[in-house]
Every structure is written in C-alpha cells, then in structure tokens.
Design goal:
Blueprint lengths: L2 H31 L9 H7 L3 E6 L1 H6 L1 H10 L2 E4 L5 H4 L9 H12 L3 E8 L7 H5 L5 H15 L6 E6 L18 H6 L2 H13 L4 E6 L7 H19 L6 E4 L2 E2 L8 H12 L4 E9 L8 H19 L5 E6 L9 H4 L21 H12 L4
Bound molecules: ligand 9MR.
Length: 377
C-alpha cells in the first residue's frame, strides 16, 4: 500500500466510524464513569467503542417478511451484507440486464437505520446465471466482466463500505487446481489469473471509495489444506501488491468447525500479521460455527459453539489490521447451514449469536466479550 493509499484508507475509515463512535462514546462514557459494565449493550455499540464494526449477512426474503429479524438486525448490526442478492445469479436476468431491486431494498433498509452496507460479490465461480455458460466465451469474457463490475459497483458507488471483489479464488484442495493454488474457475478458464487484476481495477474505477476485498475461505484452521490455502493467498496478495492492483483488504470467511479441524491461535495470529505487513486491512466476513458434531443437548452445544467464537475472536482481534467482524446471519432461524450442513439427528443447528426466537445465546456473549476485551483501533 502506498502512502497515498494509507492516507485515503485512514481518512475513509475515520469518517465512517466517527459518527458511530461519537454516539457510542457518549453513552459508554457515562456508563463507564459510573463504574458499570457494558450490560446488555448491542454488538454494534461494543464494536464501535473499539473502532470496530460488527454486522451480519441478511437476506431479502427473511428481512421483508420477519419484523423480529429486522428489529434484531437494527439493534445489533452496524453493517450488513446481502447474502445472495448481489451475486450474478440474482443481479443478471440476462446478458444485457441488471436487476437491482433486492439489493436496493437492502441498501435502503441499511441507510434508514444508520447501518453500513458491504457488497458480495463481483466475481465468483458459483451463483452464475444459466445463460453464462452458453453466452460468455474467451472472446467476450473480459468485456462482460468489466461491464458487470462497472455497472454493479457503479450503481452503488459511494454507498458501499466495502466490496468482495473476488471470492474464493484459491482452492489448493481442488484436483483441478492451477499453479499457485488458484481455483480453475470459469473466469480462470476464460481469462487466466489476470481476471483478478481486471476485476480489482474495474472496481476501483467504478467506486473509488469502497474498500476492495479479496474474500477467501479455508484460512483459519491448523490443517494441511488451510496451510496451503494461507500460503497461496499470501502469494496472490503479494503479486497483486507488486503490480499495484488496488486491493485494500483480505476477507477471511471464517466458517468454523470442530470436526477434526484444529484451531491454533499462534498459526492464525502469524497469518494475520503476514497479511497486515503487506499494508492490508482484514475483515472477518462470514463467521459462524457449525455444531453438527455435538450431542443434541442444547446447553452443551451452545457452550461449545461459544467457546469456539471466544477462542477465534480473541485471537483475531489481537491484530489491529482487523477492522470488522460479520457473522453469516444473525439468528439460527436463518442460516445457510440448516440446508447445507444439517445434523444427522435432524435437530435444528445453532451456529449464530441469536437463537431462533432472536434471544441472545452464549455465542452472543462470547462475541460481546471479545469486543469488550479488544484494544482500540
Ligand atoms: O449462504 C449462501 C447460500 O444461501 C447460497 O445458496 C450459496 C450459493 O450462492 O451461498 C451461500 O453463501 C456463501 C457465500 O456467498 C460465499 N462463501 C460461502 C457461503 C456459504 O456457502
């Protein structure tokens, strides 16, 4: 990152947090002056107090029909990200059309409630529309990609806190993986590794204010796969920085599991330091903890899930380059895991901070505690 980049990032982040911090520091200043604890202050306030942002993924369907969910999001979240609404599949009914209806609804909801918005995602190998395969070829791919990013990022220019520009580009576990652990995604097949540079440059031109993020999974655990993924991600980030590609932050998805996937604080801490030393910010973008491997007892499950949140976040937040944490959903009532990773015993999964009735769970306490203990940014 150049000095200019740093100055821009610093000022941008200051302006974005200033209002929230002003509100938070007034109320918390009073509470602390009276020698009381943070009590039941929502996560967004606890995070803002430390110069951090907390929020969650939201989805249009749930947000529009469930007023309790909407109220919980307003209470707890300082930032939201549309779970699916800005993916190609949702945004692109055809090659020549864009449909921003659902994304705009979420933007409007966020604006009305003083919540920041992040975008997910401009380039991904999944959630491509049906017409993609038959319409996009090596002749038109670059133009189609540029047009998508220019139009989508341009539509939300100045309104996005950050954009996941490229999602899950690294896949060293894939049997089809390319050199340097790159995923052989449709974009890679069509354009080679330069699709990543094209995407970041187009995003920077379309929305010079958004923090541009490379979002990646399998970076958290102390496993062989995650170690390869961390190494490949660092190599890619170094390459992008060396060619002055405008990447500002790494998004670490953080879908956590305890199914033989060991978390070693030291290993993860070193990785965060390596990323920070490249002059990049870090966001925890899709945090949740699957409980499929635990017995049905809800109290025990909730405690183990909370322990994982605590262990992970207390490590992550030691790194000052970490500027925000988003969970992939807020309430267990709406989580991708109930469909994608259900329990064998058919009991409902409980991976998020609020239960299915929007009550705070031990996981909520763990996140709150991690923010309370974090140092100021
Ligand atoms: O939670 C999302 C689920 O509803 C979608 O069906 C799926 C495919 O679009 O994507 C899920 O979200 C993924 C995110 O976009 C990228 N990282 C992994 C997330 C969980 O699969």
């Amino acid at each position: 990152m150049t000095e200019k980049d740093e100055a821009i990032m610093g000022r941008r982040s200051f302006l974005k947090h200033a209002a929230a911090l002003a509100i938070a520091s007034t109320s918390f200043g009073q509470i602390c002056a009276w020698g009381q604890t943070n009590g039941d202050a929502p996560l967004r306030e606890r995070a803002a107090r430390k110069g951090l942002i907390y929020g969650s993924a939201v989805n249009y369907g749930a947000l529009t029909r469930d007023t309790k969910l909407a109220a919980s999001v307003v209470r707890e979240c300082g930032i939201v990200v549309p779970e699916n609404e800005l993916k190609w599949e949702a945004l692109r009914p055809s090659l020549d059309k864009f449909d921003f209806t659902q994304g705009d609804f979420i933007l409007d909801f966020a604006k009305k409630n003083n919540i920041l918005l992040r975008g997910h995602t401009l380039v991904w190998h999944q959630a491509l529309p049906k017409w993609f395969e038959t319409t996009v070829n090596s002749q038109n791919a670059e133009q189609v990609l540029r047009n998508h990013i220019t139009t989508a990022a341009g539509h939300y220019a100045g309104k996005m806190h950050s954009w996941d520009v490229v999602n899950e580009a690294i896949a060293p576990w894939d049997k089809d993986k390319q050199s340097d652990g790159m995923r052989n995604s449709p974009w890679y097949k069509l354009l080679g590794p330069k699709y990543i540079d094209i995407a970041f440059k187009a995003a920077a031109a379309a929305d010079p204010k958004a923090i541009l993020v490379l979002n990646q999974d399998h970076l958290e655990h102390d496993t062989k796969i995650d170690a390869q993924s961390r190494a490949a991600t660092l190599r890619l980030l170094k390459r992008l920085k060396a060619s002055a590609t405008p990447v500002h932050a790494l998004g670490i998805e953080s879908h956590l599991s305890m199914d033989g996937e060991i978390f070693s604080p030291g290993v993860f801490r070193t990785f965060l330091k390596d990323v920070a030393e490249l002059g990049l910010k870090i966001m925890i973008t899709e945090l949740d903890v699957t409980d499929i491997m635990f017995s049905q007892n809800i109290n025990k499950r909730d405690k183990l899930v909370a322990n994982k949140y605590e262990e992970f976040l207390s490590t992550a937040l030691q790194e000052k380059a970490v500027i925000g944490v988003l969970t992939w959903g807020l309430s267990d009532k709406y989580t991708w895991l109930s469909k994608y990773m259900p329990r064998d015993d058919k009991a409902a999964v409980r991976p998020l901070p609020l239960d299915e009735n929007f009550n705070r769970k031990p996981a909520w306490n763990a996140i709150a505690g991690a923010f309370d203990k974090a140092e100021n940014r």
